[in-house]
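Dear colleagues,

As part of the handover before I leave the project, I'm documenting each prediction I ran so the next person doesn't have to rerun anything. This entry is a single chain, and its sequence is reproduced below.
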Amino acid sequence: MQDDERIKMLLHEYGVEETSSTFNNNVMQRINIAFTKQTKPLLNAFILKLLKIVFSIVLIAIIICFVFIPINNFHTPLSINLSGEVYRQMFTFIIVFWVVMLMNMWLNKRWISKNVFV
């Protein structure tokens, strides 16, 4: 009860005070500094380009294998027999997955460059 009286007194005494004239500017400067800090990427540009090239080469090699090698010549070490339909479904899933993934990356870059979420 006594705390309530003290809080009321403090609010009455200091609650109507205005902030300093530079308060808003100081806060905005701190926010701008926080947003403009340069972040260091996890991988440098050379390694990232190298990984993209290796991924592209592996992807092209897999596509070439699927196009030029008949499905019946694939020997899997699995104990179950996979039909050509299963291989086709797996290949289709991989293609759809990467198309959607790349489209998502493109959209994210586009939105981030426009600062939609900031």
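Residues 21 and 100 are 51 Å apart (CA to CA). The two ends are 44 Å apart (CA to CA).

All the best with the project,
I.
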